[in-house]
Amino acid sequence: MLTATPPLFSDDQWDDLLDFIEQGKVIPIIGEGAVTFGADDQPLYPWLAARLAERLEIPAERIGDQPTVSRVVQEHLKHNGERNLIYSRLHRILKDPALTPGSTLRCIAKIDAFKLMLSTTFDPLLERAVNEVRHGGDARTQTAAFFPGASQKDLPARTSELATSFVYYLLGRMSVAAGEFVAWEEDLLDFFFELPRHLGTDVMRNLSADLKSQALLAIGLNFSDWVARLLLRIARQDSLSRVSLNSWLAEGPHGVSPSMVMFFGGVSKNIQVVECDPQAFMAELLRRYQERFPETAARPQAKGGSTSGLVFISYAREDEAEARQIKSALEAGGCTVYFDRERLGTGMNFHYQLEDQVSRHCAVFISVVSPYTESAVGDNYFRRERFWASQRAQSFSDLDREEFYLPFLIHTESPPGLVHEPRIFSASQWNRCPGGVVPASTAEKVASLQKKFCPPIS
After folding, report:
1. How do 42-43 and 36-37 pair as beta strands?
2. Are residues 272 and 329 in the same domain?
3. Which residue ranges of the chain lie beneath pLDDT 50?
4. Residue 92 burial by CB count (10 A; 0-12/13-18/19+): exposed, middle or buried?
5. Gap between the Cα atoms of 229 and 266, Å rounded
6. Is residue 187 located within the same domain as residue 319?
7. 8-state DSSP, 216
8. What is the pLDDT of residue 302?
9. Between vectors from CA 170 to CA 166 and to CA 175, what angle results, nearest 5°?
10. What is the dihedral of CA 155, 158, 159, 164, to 10 degrees?
């Protein structure tokens, strides 16, 4: 039975956490205490330990009433069992598509401001939850995993620039091979020795920078006091007593020791320990998040939602009048348009709304090109929008890429040299719309492309 509000967390503390989430400055770290499966929310890892013991033919009396995967591994190795069998059997058990993610992982997936999610477990259930909740079941969530011999250990970009949801397996992901994920204490020691060494180099530059600059929300790590502190120390890449960024550690009563509370309360006051049921904590966090941002509650599950398959117009603020003319002409030609001034309301997380629309939902992207877009300096949202479009189009064919991204030149003469249009769209055909006047034939072409590329609702 879930409690309405996890204990020892005030309204102000909830609001502090939500403020960080709203700013896109929180990276959740999910542990095995948050991983349940099936309609009855059965904890995955005790079940997995029992299944592994069966596969390795270990008698139940040798692993006790509350078995752990690590205990099963120790019993197997103690009796001269083959090491590789551990990893191949775990992989085979977890491949079962009937293992559906439980409520806590779904709550995490529904907080769409969480773009990058870290997992300290090796199972695929968080990834499945994000695919189901955000992508309608399609396997569109990007993933990567750390293990010492991995060829690709880093994020493809900083979190703010990722094209879609990303799950990073910090301690490896399920594999048939030993050494590619943490199954027991010896593996954990190996990973904890290697991980900080790689985070300190360009090999993991993007993830390293994000871990240093973002708040962390650890949920159900189920680690001992020292292991939890060591993991946070490795993630922060600095002494916890010197870290000034806020972080939260939501743990069940068995995962919170007096020494942990004393350490974080005295030595590192910026890490708050919340003794709670992780399932109840995430349910309450989701409720408060959706209460603050009601438009996000319906988006992931929407069928026939009003923001999918639209024509997105990207423009500099100085060109707003011309962009509005383009919008009107396209609507007259049968298009449905996403225009930020009309779609973004007070209280919305506008950064996420724009990124989500470009990276996932729009059918056609119109880049309004002018001397303003070519001469602008500093941080401008039209540049971010065009970057997101380029990231999304990397998997498109050359033809689809040219038809998805349409440059609209609104001045009579082309800028002397294009420096802000992504190179990936260099073959796209120009559409000349001086002063924002769109020829009827161009509006009709955009309308036909919108129908062609209107993506499935997710």
Report:
1. antiparallel
2. no
3. 1-7, 297-306, 346-347, 455-458
4. middle
5. 14
6. no
7. E
8. 30
9. 90
10. -60
Q: Which residue in this structure is represented by tokens 């990124």?
A: 355
**Which tens digit of pLDDT belongs to each residue from 279-315?**
999 999 999 999 988 755 433 333 333 467 899 999 9
d(CA 303, CA 298): 9
DSSP state of 239: -
Pick from 246, 274, 297: which residue ends a domain? 297
Domain residues for the domain of 291 are 11-297
Q: First CA to last CA across the chain, in angstroms?
A: 31
Among 273, 297, 321, the domain-final residue is: 297
Same domain (yes/no): 215, 277? yes
Q: How many domains does the chain have?
A: 2
Task: Say which residue the tokens 């992508």 belong to.
Answer: 135
| Predicted local distance difference test score (pLDDT) of residue 3 | 38
Given this model, what pLDDT does residue 415 score? 60
**Secondary structure of residue 268 in the 3-state scheme:** coil
pLDDT on residue 22: 87
Is residue 27 situated within a structural domain? yes
Nearest-Å Rg of the Cα atoms of the chain is 25
What span, in angstroms and rounded, lies between the C-alpha atoms of 403 and 129? Answer: 32
Specify whether 326 is located in the same domain as 423: yes
Q: Is the dihedral of CA 197, 200, 201, 203 positive or negative?
A: positive
pLDDT at 242: 78
Q: Let me know if residue 58 belongs to a domain.
A: yes
Helical residues (DSSP H) of 247-377, grouped into ranges = 258-266, 278-292, 295-298, 320-332, 340-343, 350-356, 371-375
Tell whether 169 is covered by a domain: yes
